[in-house]
Each structure stands twice: as C-alpha cells, then as structure tokens.
Amino acid sequence: MEVGFTLIAAIIGLTVWRWAIYTQPGLFVSAIYLDVAILTMALAGFQGWLGAELVYSYGVFVKRAGPTEGANGEADSKDGKSNHHH
C-alpha cells in the first residue's frame, strides 16, 4: 500500500487547489474541496494508525533491546536463567 505517496499527492493537490481559489477572483471554497480535505485528514489518520500498528504490533524497524535487569536485580534472559552465578 502506498498510503504515504497518496497522502503527499492529496496535500499537494489541495495546496494547488487552495492557491487557485485564493488567486482567482470569484472562486470560493466549495463543498467538494472541503470533502477532499476531510478525506485527506482521514487518510493522514489512517497512515498514523498503520504506522503505529506496524511498529507496536509487528516490531517493524524496531531494534531488539538487550537484556534488562529484573526487580530482583538479576539480568533477565531469553531462557529465563540468570546471568549471575552464586
């Protein structure tokens, strides 16, 4: 899915459209323009949701952290064994 490129194209299109409305006397913001702007905002929200879903659910482009210290001061490891020897 090329959501990012579609979003950029929509923003550029809205910018050019708005500039044309601003510079041409007699033109005004129509309901169609507002509908396209609302759809563009919805697309931006979808892109944000999709990015969060990819990062938080699937770990896309997330580097795995090393072992962390548990509550008892021992390092956690993948197999559940401590790295400290007593």
Mean pLDDT: 84
Characterize the biggest β-sheet.
none
Distance between the termini: 53 Å
Low-confidence stretches: none
Shape: rod-shaped
Number of beta strands: 0
Order of helices and strands: HH
Please bin the fraction of helical residues: 55-70%
Structural class: mainly alpha
Radius of gyration: 25 Å
Strand content: under 5%
Count, helices: 2
Lay out the secondary structure.
Elements: H1 3-23, H2 31-58
Helix pairs in contact: 1-2
Keywords, separated by commas or semicolons:
single chain; 86 residues; mainly alpha; 2 helices; rod-shaped
What this model shows, in words?
- This protein is mainly alpha-helical and 86 residues long.
- It has a domain at 3-58.
- Helix content is 57%, strand content 0%.
- The protein is built from 2 helices and no strands.
- The longest helix is centred in the middle third of the chain and has 28 residues, at 31-58.
- The mean pLDDT is 84.
